[in-house]
C-alpha cells in the first residue's frame, strides 16, 4: 500500500515538474531538459539513462506547444534553424550511442566509494556545462554589457560572424553580417550530441550560441532555438525509444504540465526585454547547476 501511494506521488511530482519546465520553455526558448533530466534522477529516482530518454520526450512536447503558441507567420529564424538542423541527426546518434555504452560501464570508485558510472558521469558533465554557460552569461550581463541599451543589444556582433569558411549565408535576423554554413552544421552536430547524451533539447546552449557566437538578435534567437529543440527532441526521442530508455508512464504525466506551462511562459516572454531574458536565464542555469552539484556531493559523501 505504501509503495502504491509513493508511486502515485512520484508521478504527481512529474506533472508539476512538467509544468515548471513548460513555463521555462515558453520564456527562454530552452526545452528545459537541463533541469528535467537531473530532476527526474534526483527527486523522482529514475536512473540517468531513463531520465535522459524521458526528458527527450518532454522536451519535444514542450517545444511543440511553445512553437504553436508563439507561431510567427514570417517564420523568422527558419533558414538558420534548417541549416543548423543538418548536423542534428548525426550528433543525436552519437549521443545516444554514448549513453548505451555508459550503461555497460563498471562502477566508478571516487574517494573509496563505488558509484554508478552512467549516473556519475552524466551528472558531472551536466555540472560543468551548466556552470560554464551560466557564469559566462552573468559576466556578460553585469560586466561586459552592463551599460548597453536595448538598441545596442540589437546591433551586437557574433564572435564568429565573419569566420572565413565558405560557403556563407545571410539571414534577416543576423543584422551584422554573413555566417559560414559549415560552422552552422558543426554547431548542429554538437547540439545533437548533447541532446542524445543528456536528454536536453539543446536550448540551454543554443540560445547563448545563437546570440554570442552567431550574432542573432536575442528575441529571434529564442524562436530559432524552439525550432531546433523540436528537431533535436524528435531525433532524440526516436533514438532513445529504440534503446528502451523511456519511462512512458512518466511521460504521460509530464506532457499535460508542459502544455499548460508553455502557454504561461509564452505570455511572459512577450513582456521581457532581450537583456532581461539573458540575465534571468543565467540565474536559472546556475540554479540547475547547484541542484546537480549537491546531488554529486551526496553521492560521494
Can you lay out the helices and strands and say which pair or pack?
Layout: H1 2-28, H2 33-42, H3 48-69, H4 78-85, H5 88-103, E1 108-110, E2 113-115, H6 117-144, H7 150-155, E3 168-169, E4 179-180, H8 181-198, H9 203-214, H10 218-242, H11 248-269, H12 274-300
Antiparallel strand pairs: 1-2, 3-4
Which properties best describe this structure?
301 residues, two-stranded antiparallel ribbon, mainly alpha, 4 strands, 12 helices
Overview of the molecule:
Helix content is 73%, strand content 3%. With 301 residues, it is mainly alpha-helical. It has one domain (2-300). A two-stranded antiparallel sheet has the order 1-2. Strands 3-4 form a two-stranded antiparallel ribbon. A hairpin with a 2-residue loop joins strand 1 (108-110) and strand 2. Helix 5 packs parallel to helix 8 (181-198). The longest helix is centred in the middle third of the chain and has 28 residues, at 117-144. The mean pLDDT is 80.
Strand order of the largest sheet: 1-2
Radius of gyration: 19 Å
Helix content: over 70%
Number of helices: 12
Strand percentage? under 5%
What order do the helices and strands follow? HHHHHEEHHEEHHHHH
Shape: globular
Enumerate the spans where pLDDT stays under 50 for 5 or more consecutive residues. Answer: none
Helix/strand-derived category reads mainly alpha
Q: Mean of the pLDDT scores?
A: 80
Strand tally is 4
Whole-Å distance between the termini? Answer: 32 Å
Number of separate domains: 1
